[in-house]
């Protein structure tokens, strides 16, 4: 009897979980890749079936790595373009993660995204005020840019996660 489809169900069930993790600005696509590799190994070992090819997994890992790099570049570039210091850029990154995690339980996933965007702005503002000692107008401009950058980063990260999950689910079921 063929049981390979159980592996396909595991990969399919992991996809929406990965989307939620990505909305928290955490590495959801890497979680999905880890589940996919583990499922491939278990299905291959236990059943002798090939669920997802190594080429597909490598391509998806490459896309995930590119997305992570672009996420950092997009959020840092928008804040830097507005005049952020290194402290402001770091504050935006940390604030985005903390804001998403703190706000997530309220009305997931909407509040996770809102918390991440607000946290990025607040983190940049506080870092510019406390460490960089920037003027209030600079703080506001950097905070707004950090929030916009975080918004773009969430869209980019979620889009990559959805694209990779579609590729892996299709590969698992073929």
Radius of gyration over C-alpha positions, nearest whole angstrom: 19 Å
Mean pLDDT figure: 89
**How would you sum up the major sheet?**
none
Instruction: Please work out how many helical segments DSSP would assign.
Output: 6
Number of domains as seen in the coordinates: 1
Given the helix and strand composition, which structural class is it? mainly alpha
Strand content: under 5%
| Contiguous uncertain segments of 5+ residues | none
End-to-end C-alpha gap: 17 Å
Q: What multimeric state do the chains show? A: single chain
| Overall geometric form | elongated
- DSSP strand count: 0
Give the helix proportion (percent range).
over 70%
Concise account of the structure shown:
The chain is mostly helical.
Describe this entry's structure for a reader.
With 174 residues, this protein is an all-alpha fold. The protein contains six helices and no strands. It has helices at residues 5-23, 28-47, 54-81, 86-103, 110-130, 136-173. Helix 2 (28-47) runs parallel beside helix 6. The radius of gyration is 19 Å and the shape is elongated.
Summary tags:
single chain; 174 residues; mainly alpha; elongated
SSE map:
Layout: H1 5-23, H2 28-47, H3 54-81, H4 86-103, H5 110-130, H6 136-173
Helix pairs in contact: 1-2, 1-6, 2-3, 2-6, 3-4, 3-6, 4-5, 4-6, 5-6
């Amino acid at each position: 009897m063929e049981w390979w489809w159980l592996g396909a169900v595991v990969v399919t069930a992991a996809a929406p979980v990965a989307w939620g993790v990505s909305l928290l600005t955490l590495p959801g696509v890497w979680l999905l890749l880890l589940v996919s590799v583990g499922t491939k190994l278990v299905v291959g070992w236990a059943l002798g079936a090939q669920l997802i090819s190594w080429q597909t997994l490598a391509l998806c890992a490459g896309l995930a790595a590119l997305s992570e790099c672009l996420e950092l570049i997009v959020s840092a570039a928008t804040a830097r373009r507005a005049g952020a210091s290194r402290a402001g850029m770091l504050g935006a990154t940390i604030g985005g993660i903390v804001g998403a995690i703190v706000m997530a339980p309220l009305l997931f996933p909407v509040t996770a995204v809102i918390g991440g965007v607000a946290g990025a702005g607040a983190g940049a503002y506080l870092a510019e005020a406390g460490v960089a000692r920037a003027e209030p107008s600079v703080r506001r401009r950097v905070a707004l840019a950090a929030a916009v950058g975080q918004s773009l980063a969430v869209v980019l990260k979620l889009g990559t996660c959805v694209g990779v999950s579609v590729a892996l689910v299709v590969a698992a079921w073929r």
